[in-house]
Design a protein that fits this description.
It contains eight helices and eight strands; from the N terminus they run βααββαααβαββαββα. The chain is an alpha+beta fold and 256 residues long. Helix 3 packs across helix 4 and helix 4 packs antiparallel against helix 5.
Length: 256
């Protein structure tokens, strides 16, 4: 029996933001506990259902699938926050990696589109396409007027973070090895304001670089990272407060 305030499905839809059809579907999946019924057969929900739907909405905002939300709902039913947060942390960490990989792919694709846009119109033959028009000829970015495309990793807090690394000492060797591997292809280093620009060869994979910069940002929030793709090529720009410039050079190398 439902106790306390109860709501009909239209009221729950208005309060939760889910449509009535979605609520019925969630009930079929077991995501929402079976509702009570009025004598006329109308579904009834209570405040606990609204709280559960708010949790489901938050999980959907974080990109969780229905299967993942169903798994989370089991932890939610235990009425203990710690297991729910632990499972959410695992899911969010995996989704950060996936999102960074997709961002890197889209950054590279955007740069290709910009280069193609710049190439189109440079040469328009009077007749069929030829070997110099931009319709079918690949562009390598040389001389391109494509704008710089940046993938940035900024700290969550507006105030300047302390110059400190929160990575556990036991994890330091693995992190340094990861940076050595990712930076191995670098072909040039140049000084920029408050930091360094590391240039990668054309076609270098951005996914490992994007993933590692995101991980580094979590423990060293005083760093600023930007992966740039423009007519100069692909590069990682790393900057930091003036008092941390030695740390930049120590980890990422000194300008040539």
């Amino acid at each position: 029996m439902l106790m306390g305030t109860t709501y009909k499905i239209a009221e729950v839809a208005a309060r939760s933001g889910f449509t009535a059809s979605t609520l019925r579907y969630y009930e079929e999946l077991g995501l929402v506990p079976p509702a009570g019924r009025t004598t006329a057969g109308y579904r009834l929900y209570d405040d606990s259902t609204l709280a559960r739907l708010a949790f489901i909405s938050r999980a959907k905002q974080l990109g969780c699938t229905l299967d993942e939300i169903t798994d989370l709902a089991v932890a939610w039913d235990g009425e203990r926050c710690e297991p729910v947060q632990a499972r959410l942390r695992e899911l969010v960490a995996a989704k950060i990696v996936d999102a960074q990989e997709r961002i890197a792919e889209m950054v590279a694709f955007t740069a290709q589109l910009q280069q193609a846009a710049a190439a189109l119109g440079r040469h328009t033959p009077d007749g069929p396409c030829d070997d110099e028009c931009g319709c079918a000829t690949p562009v390598d970015g040389t001389g391109s007027s494509a704008r710089s495309v940046e993938l940035t990793a900024q700290p969550l807090n507006a105030s300047d973070p302390p110059i400190a690394c929160t990575l556990a000492a036991s994890d330091m060797p693995a992190r340094l090895e990861a940076w050595d591997a990712v930076l191995a292809p670098v072909i040039a280093r140049a000084s920029i304001e408050n930091g360094i620009r590391l240039v990668f060869p054309t076609g270098a994979s951005l996914a490992p670089l994007a993933e590692l910069t995101a991980a580094e940002q979590e423990c060293c929030m005083f760093f600023r990272f930007a992966i740039t793709i423009d007519s100069r090529g692909t590069a990682l720009e790393v900057t930091a407060p003036a008092e941390a410039i030695d740390l930049v050079y120590s980890l990422f190398g000194s300008p040539a």
